[in-house]
Design a protein that fits this description.
The complex is a heterodimer of chains A (103) and B (578).
Chain A (H helix, E strand, L loop, with lengths): L1 E4 L9 H5 L5 E4 L2 E4 L10 H5 L5 E4 L10 E7 L2 E7 L5 E7 L7
Antiparallel strand pairs in A: 1-4, 2-3, 5-6, 6-7
Chain B lengths: L5 E12 L3 H13 L4 E4 L16 E2 L9 H11 L6 H20 L3 E2 L9 E2 L3 E5 L3 H9 L5 E4 L2 E9 L2 E9 L4 E12 L29 H8 L4 E2 L8 E3 L7 H6 L4 E2 L14 H13 L5 E3 L6 H12 L3 H10 L8 E5 L12 E2 L12 E3 L11 H22 L9 H13 L7 H15 L8 E2 L1 H12 L1 H6 L6 H26 L10 E2 L11 E8 L2 E8 L11 E2 L5 E3 L5 E2 L1
Parallel strand pairs in B: 1-2, 1-10, 2-7, 10-17, 18-19
Antiparallel strand pairs in B: 3-6, 4-6, 5-6, 8-9, 9-10, 11-16, 11-20, 12-15, 13-14, 14-15, 20-21, 21-24, 22-23
Helix pairs in contact in B: 1-4, 1-10, 2-3, 3-10, 5-15, 8-9, 12-13, 12-15, 13-15
């Protein structure tokens, strides 16, 4: 499991590099780059920090990944988590950040 | 890039090493009194560093209505088969609710019923939305103008003279710069140690583990090397987790009451006992005896429950929700496979860590410890770590009201030279990654890792010790092209130091009190003679085991005293050296 950074939408603002708990993101030629993708913990801090939606999260094949990506969109108190499969189909789960877990 | 580091010197009253759960709350507490200058030094960024980076699923340590702090102490004592510090546990328990309320005032969402009371999950847990708990804590830590933060600086060594701490040394992970920080007191709050053993997913997803892979035992290693006493490292923590994603199982087990079931469809939930170590042991045994794989039986839950689980996991372990959706079968259709993780050393779950007194003073004068790095008090979880941050901060205030002299000398130069040596090494065909894998392989095979069903014996431990010792010269020859490489080298060095002490502890407890956590096959049964703490101190490069009697009266807390020259006058009971 790791992240993929979309260079066309990355604006090189460094927000992701600033918060990664593993110091795993650096800026090269004004674009964010993950230094060692195998070292990602999967905490998704960078996805939540990114203002342009340039970072996508995926599972490695060794833990059940099949190529889908997880991305995040913020809308006020709502956080939309979007899973996009390889055939382009999307499934969105919306979490209200002001509501507690039920479990 | 050159191999000479620029030196940046700082001076503060209190240095906090690690801005995670305990460190942030320590800074917040010191900030409230506003009497001292505080500097947090963090190897990542305190906004999202440490255990809480992704969020947390619940507050697991809270004194619910009708219960008293003593109940919590009793629960922890029973779960750890008696090897706990009741004084430490009681001091934590008495603070659990207050720290929770402070978090709520600062924006943590806690579920309440129609009467405004917290909704509980079991006897000690309350339900929250813990996704943003770390940004909330980071903000609280920086409320006072007297608290400052340096992010992206990795501290490697304490400065200690005559058993008294006066600062620490580290380096900037993004820049050719070393930091020398002089402080009157130091709060160690670096968290525990992951990556000692070969992980569940050793390939591409090697860092998909339960505990943060970036918590590499720095605080233990610094303490061990400075001669601080450690306790109960042999009580390893192995978490029971969702297969592959290593996501928490408690949300499913407690949230929708899913039971543990083996591959034959039999519920083995209580067959092996219900202590934390026995839940892991049960699953390990079912697999070993050919009745695996094991599951949490979720295939009877409703669609609505499934949807809530998807959301709950997005708030703390998003990979699990992605796995369910990507696989096309959620928990309502397919039972959730479970497995034990690799062993970790983590004082927030078991009793491993610094030997401290009731103020969280360590046996090195002026050095305090809080959270996962601190031993004696298992099951402290998030709120317990916050409580310890508070207790340590108050302890430091008291200490500095009597001892407030600044020390400086130039012994930091040796440490900076060591950084520069790695940066100028020519290197060879052994890489940082190879060495990490070797360390994990040795621990896995000879010190009770996953591949050995967590079991070890005297012969294996002796071999592990020999092989680990053989890694030091290899480590010293590693080349760091930049300070990012240097960080990785020090992370291995820290883990090697912790692993060496761990081996001594595993061998010294000649019994099996905790299945899986310390399954010593040379001594496979419980021995009443080991109703004591196995502690250790490194002296002249050798790890010396010290056995100390149990602190059983929580109302007479242990308080260390120091001689004029800084040496420890009293560190608890009558020590029994072996």
């Amino acid at each position: 499991m790791s992240i993929r950074i979309n260079t066309s939408s990355c604006i090189g603002c460094k927000r992701c590099a600033e918060v990664c708990p593993g110091n795993l993101i650096k800026i090269v030629n004004k674009k964010a780059v993950i230094k060692r993708e195998k070292d990602c913990w999967g905490c998704t801090s960078c996805l939540k920090e990114c203002k342009t939606g340039a970072i996508e999260f995926f599972l490695g094949a060794d833990i059940g990944g099949k190529g889908s990506i997880l991305s995040v969109e913020e809308q006020g108190d709502l956080r939309h988590w979007i899973v996009t499969a390889t055939d382009g189909t999307k499934k969105t789960i919306t979490v209200n950040t002001k509501e507690s877990n039920k479990y | 890039m050159g191999n000479t580091l620029q030196i940046e010197k700082k001076e503060t009253d209190v240095l906090i090493i690690g801005g995670g759960t305990a460190g942030c709350y320590g800074a917040y507490t010191l900030g409230l009194s506003d009497k001292l200058d505080v500097l947090i030094v963090e190897k990542a960024n305190i906004k999202r560093s440490g255990c809480l980076a992704a969020g947390v699923n619940a507050i697991n340590a809270y004194i619910t209505d009708g219960r008293v702090p003593q109940d919590y102490v009793d629960y922890c004592k029973k779960d750890a088969k008696g090897i706990v510090r009741e004084d430490l546990l009681l001091s934590i328990s008495e603070n659990l609710n207050e720290v929770t309320h402070r978090l709520e005032e600062n924006g943590l969402v806690i579920l309440k019923d129609e009467n405004g009371k917290y909704v509980t999950r079991g006897n000690r847990n309350i339900k929250i939305n813990g996704e943003n708990i770390k940004p909330i804590l980071a903000k609280m830590a920086q409320e006072s103008k007297r608290v400052s933060v340096i992010n992206h600086v990795n501290i490697t060594d304490l400065l200690v003279k005559n058993n008294r701490v006066y600062g620490a040394v580290g380096f900037d992970v993004n820049d050719n710069k070393a930091y020398v920080i002089f402080a009157k007191a130091v709060l160690m709050a670096t968290g525990g140690a992951a990556g000692l053993y070969r992980p569940n997913n050793p390939g591409f997803s090697r860092h998909k583990m339960w505990y943060p892979p970036f918590n590499t035992g720095a605080g233990y290693a610094m303490g061990i090397n400075a001669g601080a006493e450690m306790t109960t490292l042999e009580m390893r923590f192995i978490a029971l987790r969702c297969k592959d994603t290593i996501a928490p199982t408690g949300t499913i087990a407690q949230g929708v009451q899913a039971k543990q079931m083996n591959g034959l469809g039999e519920i083995y939930e209580t067959k092996y006992g219900v202590a934390t170590c026995e839940r892991v042991y049960g699953t390990t045994e079912e697999n070993r005896q050919g009745r695996g794989p094991c599951y949490l039986k979720t295939d009877e839950i409703s669609k609505a429950q499934e949807d809530e689980l998807y959301k709950a996991y997005l708030n703390m372990a998003p990979s699990q929700t992605l796995k369910w959706l990507e696989g096309g079968q959620g928990p309502a259709k397919q039972n959730v496979e479970i497995e034990g993780t690799e062993p970790y050393i983590v004082g927030g779950h078991t009793a491993s860590g610094y030997w401290v007194d009731n103020n969280r003073a360590t046996t090195v004068q002026g050095l305090y410890a809080a959270g996962d790095v601190t031993g004696g008090a298992p099951q402290k979880y998030v709120t317990g770590a916050l409580a310890e941050g508070k207790i340590a901060a108050l302890g430091i205030e008291q200490y500095l009201s009597i001892n407030s002299s600044h020390e400086t000398d130039d012994s930091w130069e040796k440490i900076v030279q060591e950084y520069e040596t790695f940066l100028s090494n020519e290197g060879n065909n052994i890489t940082i990654e190879q060495l990490e894998e070797t360390l994990q392989k040795i621990m896995d095979e000879y010190a009770g890792g996953i591949s050995k069903g967590y079991q070890f014996n005297d012969t294996g431990l002796a071999l592990a010790k020999e092989k680990l010792n053989g890694l030091y010269p290899v480590l010293e020859s590693l080349r760091a092209a930049d300070t990012d490489d240097l960080l990785q080298i020090y992370e291995i060095k820290e883990r090697l130091t912790v692993a060496r002490s761990l081996i001594e502890h595993l061998g010294a407890r000649k019994e099996t009190r905790w299945h899986s956590f310390a399954e010593n096959m040379s001594y496979p049964t419980e021995d009443k003679g080991f109703e004591l703490y196995v502690n250790s101190v490194k002296e002249n490069g050798q790890i010396k085991i010290v056995k100390r009697p149990l602190v059983v009266d929580e109302y007479t807390p242990l308080i260390f005293t120091f001689n004029e020259d800084g040496s420890v006058a009293f560190a608890g009971g009558e020590e029994d050296e072996h």
